[in-house]
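We treat protein structure as text, and this decision shapes the records that our systems exchange. The tokens are whole numbers drawn from a learned vocabulary of local backbone shapes. One such record is reproduced below, unchanged from the form in which we store it:
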Amino acid sequence: MKRLLPLTLLLALSSVGPAQAGLFGDDEARRAIIELRSESNSRLERLEASSRGQLELANQNELLKAEISKLHGQIEVLLHEMESLKQRQRDFYVDLDNRVRQIESSRTASVPTTPPADPAAESAAYETALNLLKEAKYKDALTGFEQFINQHPRSSLLPGAHFWAGNAALQAKEVATASNYFNAVLTNWPRDPVAPDALLGLANSQQALGDAKSSQETLKKIVERFPESSAATAAKQRLAKKKP
């Protein structure tokens, strides 16, 4: 009711005659007008402040939505990269396994060997250990290849079994064991087609043990001894990264 007083006063002033208007005086009318303007300005300022606050809140909400959307996008990218990495690792094992199988098949065809007592059991044992490695069950895979090596000492798959045992041991963080298996390949089958990859595995083991110098020397041996191999390509790339 107090806010309506100035307006009521003006209405009263406008409705009275000249004689009655003189009762209020110029000062009172002037004060009423000033109060009315002050009230109007105050209301306008509050309205503007409220509008600015709502606008700022709306802008903050939009920024928050944009940031959340950005984070969701980054999470999706990371998940995709992780899945791609897993798939590349699986593809690597499959590809290398295929190459080892081709090597073993050609060697078996060209060099007569004493047939194993049970070819099916030999193949199944090797396949089981290899599948465990592909499934990232590294310790189980290592055990499987060790059993294969002990149970089939005359198998033509021994170079591959030692190589895969080294890989399984390396992935299981049993680096010294991995080095022994890679060295066994290089000692017993130095010209076997799997030898370049065994050398690369040995370089990885040396690097994991903190012996960077020996690792570099092993990478150089791969390039010198097996320049046309895929292992040599990988070795060249790693050697190039070490150059200043």
Remarks:
- The radius of gyration is 42 Å.
- The chain has a mean pLDDT of 79.
